[in-house]
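Crash report, auto-generated. Payload:
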Amino acid sequence: MGQNIIDVRNLSKSFNISSKEPGLKGTIKHFFRRETKSLKVIKDISFEIKEGEIVGFLGANGAGKTTILKMLCGLIYPSEGSILVSGYLPFRRKENFLKNITLIMGQKQQLIWDLPPIESFYLNASIYDLDKFEAKKRIKKLSEMLEIDEELFIPVRKLSLGQRMKSELLAALIHEPNILFLDEPTLGLDINAQRNLRKFLQKYNKENNATICLTSHYMKDITSLCKRVICVQEGAISYDGKLDLLLKKLSPVKEILIVCRSEDDAIKLENYGFTVKNKIKNEITIKIENNSITSSLKTILNNFDIEDLFINEPPIDEIIGKVLIKKDYDI
Amino acid sequence: MNLSKYIKVYKKFLHTSLASELEYKTNILVDLITAILSLIGSIFLLSIFFQNNGYIGGWKYEQALIIQGIYTILNGITNTWFNPNLTEIVKHIREGTLDFVLLKPIDSQFFISLKKINPSGFLEIMLGFFLLFYCIIINQINLNLSLLTLSLITISCSICILYSLWFFISTTTIWFVKTWNAIEVLRSFLYIGRFPLNSFSFSLRVFFSIFIPIAFITTIPSEVFLGLSQLWKIFLEVIVATVFLITSRKFWLFALKFYSSASS
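Recovered output after restart:
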């Protein structure tokens, strides 16, 4: 892993937001006297991202993930604090900075609706100052990586969501950027399309040593792509570190289902001192802390006649879901 | 600014927007018919105004046709470039797709002002030139180099003023989000540009010279054709156009600081 490519210090962002009471009276009042208040959506956050890293931003809807991404790529001016991306102040949007980054939003598209994607690719190539030969070479390489071929020549409006998303990716990557900002790139895609997209991003990251900042509500995207996650809760960072450490922290115990040879063994095990979740005949489910799994299992296997044993990992969505709960969750 | 890159990109804009528009042949045909009917209707309306009195605001019917010709050219330019692009700004801001424009290594004003063209507007421009050519013959205007240069300068200035006004209103979308109505009001004011400025009352003349400079847009170029224009008026138009262009540019760059992008 290389040096820091993104450096964020004490970043805050406030928006003026107007609110409206329901009903006709509220509408009239809102029309004549709009009450606006300043809302701090990002609160004094700091973090660094190293070159080649893939970082997932986790948080509930409205937590501020997209606002952070948009500040990182220079679309939104920060209210306070500083951001350096690849040595540039993003909001100045210098040409060399823009040639080095890309933003992909799962819910918005830049392809020309009535034309085949290939036309948008060549348009983008001319914007990024690529000659026809170089553009052709890159389109060929990326389309092979994304496994799209005939779709390049079909009008965008006739493509499926998955094919469109692949084309969006190609359009956004034709200039081979080193920093990718992905805002829910797999939104609405089927399982296979999601998997292909993840495979492509892994490959792109590896081949180009690209830095990827990703937000997604699909946990599979996060778990298969990101070693590091930044959890955002109501505009503040509540966790910044390795994903597996977060999972251990959020789920410190594992459930173990033990099938004993006899019900007597199950009763003995019930009274041995483990935390018992439930017991049905000769089957007993106990909870063991992650750090004492090995020693506890040794004890059980040495002292009881065990027929079978299952270690149940709690579903990852459920664990991460705890992070997404808006109320303060102490990580 | 890398000029050759911008020319290359503009060629791509032309190619892609022509290709997009040509996907819908019927729409183009309807637009072409509308342009022809609209011109016939305007000339008919003008002839009705001049039916009882040979002069309006000191202008003969044949002279007033020059204004109609210039108006038709400007309206064609509006329909070819301004309408498809500048109305799209509102959409870009409402839907947050301006994000893609701002993140391209190209001038954002260039991109959003010139990305699309509506080819049916070309017919209107051509019709305007035909009408102007006809007016030159019936008004027995002696075409010479200085007249051509001055008319080119004044028409270019009119295009700049028109563009700046429209762009200025569209830019306010960054704060007000919906500005369709303001653009419609501007368009309806432009219809006034089909008539000589002298045909309006003094107060309206002042209004259309200072607040919404319709007077500069059609009347001054027409006066140039008829040899009626004074040099100070041409200078004034050049100054107004320059001020409008610079202001609209500065206003766009200022407004972008307040762009908050649409929520995802």
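Post-recovery validation: Chain A has a mean pLDDT of 87.
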